[in-house]
Structure formats: structure tokens, C-alpha cells
Amino acid sequence: MKYWLMKSEPDVFSIDNLKKDKTTWWEGVRNYQARNFMKDMQVGDEVLFYHSNAEPPGVAGIAKVSKLAEPDAAQFDKKSEYHDPKATKEKPIWFCVQVAFVEKFDEVISLADLRGNDKLQDMLVLQKGSRLSVQPVEKKHFDLVKKMAAASARESAERKASGLKLKQ
């Protein structure tokens, strides 16, 4: 199994949209390196779902690859902003995988929190100039982000519980 990070702007498609829809095709990627990463993905690979251009930007949850890469239908649709006139059904240029919802974190693990963790310093998303919308993640980094989310959820639950005790 491999691990990935996929970025989406939450006003375009958020972790809540994925939770509601259950699955989506990760279409519209128009970067060759990101496309090639999707072509390498296997069913069951896990994905950090990252909200970019958000306040705060960061990892909002977990998804998994549910279908292998197929030609991105938007490249053939002349009405789509992702249309590519050079692409043909015989020779598609762009591909996308289907991802399925796994989990929404109680709180976004912010970019600042990721940067603040010394064990994540070599994570690709934290590298200067790294703007890829689809990128590989090392298992150790994936696991650490999940631990950060679990710790955040525990802290949030403890705050809520102590607030309830104070009110009583």
C-alpha cells in the first residue's frame, strides 16, 4: 500500500462533500507529475485529504483510492474548464482516480501544526515550492498525521467534558 496527499479547495470540493457523496473522481488535475502519481495509485491506497486555500490550510481527513486511474472525462468536454483540445478518446492525456471517504478529522491539522512537528520536516507538502495537488506521503508521515488528529480529537473531547462539568 502507498500513501498520498491530495489537495482540494474546500469551496470547490471539501471533505464534507466527499463524506456526503461517499466517492468522487479526482478530476481536473492538469499537472503531468500529479497525473503520473495518480496513474501509480492502487485501490486501497490511503490519502490525506488536504484543504488548500482555506483558513487554516491543512489536512481535514482521510480518503482511500477506490478505483484505478481512468481517462479524465472532463478533458473531452468542450464546456468544461478542464477541456484539453489535444486530448482524444484514443489518446487521452489526463487521468484521474476515484477516491472514497474514510474519515473527517474533528479539527483540521493545520499547515502550521504540520510545520511545527520536527518529525514531519521532510514531508513533501512542507518543502519550499511544493505546490503539487497530488503527492506521495511516506507511511511514517501518514501515521504521524493520523496520531496528531487523534490527539486533537481527545483534547477537544476533554475540553468539552470539562466545560460541561463547569456548567453543572
TrEMBL record:
SUPFAM superfamilies: PUA domain-like. Residues 2-148 form the EVE domain. It holds the Pfam family EVE. Keywords: Phosphoprotein. Signal peptide: none annotated. CDD domains: EVE. The keyword Transferase does not apply. InterPro entries: 5hmC_binding (IPR052181), EVE_domain (IPR002740), PUA-like_sf (IPR015947), THYN1-like_EVE (IPR047197). PANTHER family: THYMOCYTE NUCLEAR PROTEIN 1. This is EVE domain-containing protein. It comes from Bdellovibrio bacteriovorus.
